[in-house]
Design a protein that fits this description.
alpha/beta, 5-stranded mixed beta sheet, 10 strands, single chain, about 300 residues
């Protein structure tokens, strides 16, 4: 149970900002020193290193490259300047000290640390974070929370992870599929809530894209094996568009086939297309199918 008493260490907005900025510094240090094949005794970040290794070992989708990419994206946000600029947009926060709420969070696990922004916003707003982790991503959030608590011990009393069913919270944020969202709406209807469903990214091309933009499109399609809710799963193309020129920019992702789970999806979908005589483009690691649907299977990109 959270310690909502006079004994609870006060972590005001200034302390919260400095602590998260320090977290960014620690992540930058970790990224500069990390050796995936090395030992765990890296300066003072050995525990963090161990949990990153466990995340890689427990979920084959979480490759070294993708975990590092997620941490890089997070550390780039965590500077004192960025955090102060962000918090300045919410002057009421400075008047809310001493009245924290307990915010329950049902986390997704599709990409590494996908729930970090909820973690950041709840704690920066002065509230208590009460998280139910996905079995697909249970080590990285604990690693980040542990590192943050070591920087500012007051956070240790404001962060809790629940192994069983969430209870005793004031509001809830839950992320899941369209099916689980229906359950979430029924179960959490009496609480203030944010319920997130399935989402997909869509790209609309004009035919005038630069090489830089086409490489960015390849990143939006392929990063994290396309498992993110912001990954592009469908592209709209003008008549006469050069598919070959566009696909040249995807070549940097050929290594996706080194991941057996991704490769299995590619082989399965390719087999289905061949057996059913479905016209498609095949890069050797990505399949493109003309389809009016927006969501596409792993290893497949829809176009229209």
């Amino acid at each position: 149970i959270f310690l909502h008493s006079k004994k609870e260490r006060n972590v005001n907005l200034e302390k919260r900002t400095k602590a998260f900025a320090k977290l960014g510094e620690h992540l930058r240090k970790f990224l500069s020193e990390y050796n995936p094949e090395g030992n765990y005794a890296i300066s003072d970040l050995g525990d963090f290193h161990r949990l990153v290794q466990k995340a890689r070992e427990s979920n084959p989708w979480f490759t070294h490259t993708h975990i590092m990419r997620a941490l890089q994206a997070i550390e780039a946000l965590l500077t004192e300047e960025h955090l102060e600029t962000w918090m300045d947009r919410y002057p009421a926060l400075k008047k809310q000290e001493g009245s924290p709420k307990t915010i329950g969070v049902v986390n997704a696990g599709n990409i590494p640390l996908v729930g970090f922004h909820d973690f950041l916003t709840i704690l920066m707003a002065g509230h208590n974070y009460y998280g139910k982790l996905s079995s697909k991503d249970e080590h990285l959030p604990r690693a980040v929370a542990g590192l943050l608590s070591s920087i500012e011990p007051g956070f240790a009393e404001k962060i809790r992870f629940e192994e069983n069913q969430l209870s005793g919270f004031d509001a809830i944020i839950a992320t899941g599929s369209n099916n689980t969202a229906r359950y979430f709406h029924r179960y959490f209807s009496k609480y203030p809530h944010i319920i997130r469903k399935n989402r997909n990214g869509v790209a609309v091309l004009t035919g005038n894209e630069s090489d830089t933009e086409l490489q960015g499109l390849a990143d939006d399609v392929m990063l994290y094996f396309g498992l993110g809710c912001r990954n592009v799963s469908k592209i709209y193309l003008p008549e006469g568009f050069s598919m070959t020129h566009m696909l040249d920019h995807f070549s940097s992702y050929e290594g996706a086939m080194d991941n057996h789970k991704y490769a299995n999806n590619y082989d399965y979908n390719k087999s289905v297309f061949i057996i059913n005589q479905v016209p498609h483009y095949d890069t050797g690691f990505l399949l493109l199918k003309e389809d009016t649907g927006i969501p596409s299977p792993i290893s497949t990109l829809h176009y229209e």
